[in-house]
Amino acid sequence: AQSVSQHNHHVILSEAASLELGCNYSYGGTVNLFWYVQYPGQHLQLLLKYFSGDPLVKGIKGFEAEFIKSKFSFNLRKPSVQWSDTAEYFCAFKTGGGNKLTFGTGTQLKVEL
Amino acid sequence: GAGVSQTPSNKVTEKGKYVELRCDPISGHTALYWYRQSLGQGPEFLIYFQGTGAADDSGLPNDRFFAVRPEGSVSTLKIQRTERGDSAVYLCASSSTGGERNEQFFGPGTRLTVL
User: Quick one: closest CA in A to B47, which residue?
Assistant: First the structure.
């Protein structure tokens, strides 16, 4: 069965620290990869996506993610986090030709001043 | 530009009752999705509509769950004989068309509590 594993459930960082959130997916075929973010009191919104081409993709607010096919991974990174990055982050994928998103369990990030 | 809206925002019901949850997609979006998010989990797919028809209902957990989209716009998720395990946030999303590369825009969700 297809699934997504997010290794860190809760992460606490100080402002200006670097961030890396792990994501591994389980599926043997073509995938399209996504990171969604949910800020406190807001709905899910797309942070970035990967379909094909350059495996390093850049999203909004300085976030980036790298697709490593051999590791089935799509880790999210940001060089210097801000207090406003406090949110829950979800990794997700669609199979090639598919419509539904398969989500991980999410990582709750808290950035302290 | 209105986003996806869902009503009610909160619904409390008793075990065994029937509930309806409504989703208003972004105008012009032909694809509509329902997901369910239980506490501490990520959203789980329930059903996908392309226009008026359910193109994929493989995520519906059992026959107590049913969804319709009669005019290809608003959708209603219906749950019969609710159980405490149905308590979750029910999310609706829409996209301009279906397909693997189309961004899904999510609504705020309906928090369902079954007592």
Answer: A100
**B5 beta partners:** B24
d(CA B9, CA B88): 12
- Whether residues A100 and B55 touch (CB distance < 8 A) is answered with no
Q: Which runs of E-coded beta strand occur in B25-87?
A: 31-37, 44-50, 53-56, 65-68, 75-79
CB-based contacts of B82: which residues, under 8 Å, 6+ apart?
B13, B14, B15, B16, B17, B18, B19, B64, B112, B114
Residue in B4, B32, B36, B104 to test binding to A, most A beta-carbons within 10 Å: B104
pLDDT tens column, B49-99: 999 999 999 999 999 999 999 999 999 999 999 999 999 999 999 999 877
